[in-house]
Amino acid sequence: MGGVRYKLTVAYDGTDFYGWQKQEPPVEGGEVVVSDDKEIGRVMRDGVERAQLRTVQEVLERAVREVLREEVIVTGASRTDSGVHAWGQVASFVSEPDVSKGVGWPRERGCEPLVKAVNARLPRDVLVRSAEVVDEDFSPIGDARSKEYTYTIACGEARPVFGRRYVWHTWYELDVAKMNEAARVLIGEHDFAGFAQINHGRKTTVREIFDCSVEEVGGGADVLGVGDGVKLVRVRVSGSGFLYNMVRIIAGTLMEVGRGKMSVEDVRGVVESADRLSNRGPTLPPMGLRLEWIRYGG
Fold this sequence. Notes:
Largest sheet: 10 strands, mixed
Distance between the termini: 31 Å
Order of helices and strands: EEEEEHEEHEEEHEEHEHHE
Helix content: 10-25%
Structural class: alpha+beta
Oligomer: single chain
Radius of gyration: 21 Å
Number of strands: 14
CATH superfamily of the largest domain: Pseudouridine synthase I, catalytic domain, C-terminal subdomain
CATH topology of the largest domain: Alpha-Beta Plaits
Strand content: 25-35%
């Protein structure tokens, strides 16, 4: 029986994860050299003791392996950073079913039971939303045609309580209309070096933004567990691909426009300069960022 490739759509709360990608840093002097205490185990590889950090890929892969009783590798489409959330992350793996040995997941067993079985073994901050059989050569990274991220900012006199893990708070009032005007400057194919972390490591910084907008989201006070005087502002960006920290820098730049520290022309100048040093917009923290969807095919 040939291999079967499954595509998963995954949601997760990234707060307590060290990002998507599996990480096993070396242990030095009994301590792990990382910025967060998210170690879930130790392993010896090539004579070196390494720490296994709590990542979404690690947790999901373990759950899939338990269900299939097979050493599959789960590959994700987007390497979200520590603290970043996802509603529409895409991952895939290949199963080599052998009914006689009770391993793997034959396609005739169905995708819905697979989803239920994997979810039963996942922690509460990860959920497989759906599964489907795809072509054997499907690549969650290489075949992706577009992605959308959102960044949510709470602004006003009240600080978030219950929703603090999912938004970034600023005390300043934000002019959504001005932010929208500046967001439109980013649409199209540009050199986005001015919106990427320095030493990003990519060969080219040219990317295409299909849409970029800013909206006020209703019901902010109720969602965040605070009283009156707070509103939610959401930056929405879709494109062919993104540079490291690009969306968080875009959100920080648009926030500066909203509070009157930068103008629309300033943003246009950053695009034209392709220089991060000319951009006064900060890189906002990860908690407000969420991967919404990834699209494939035409």
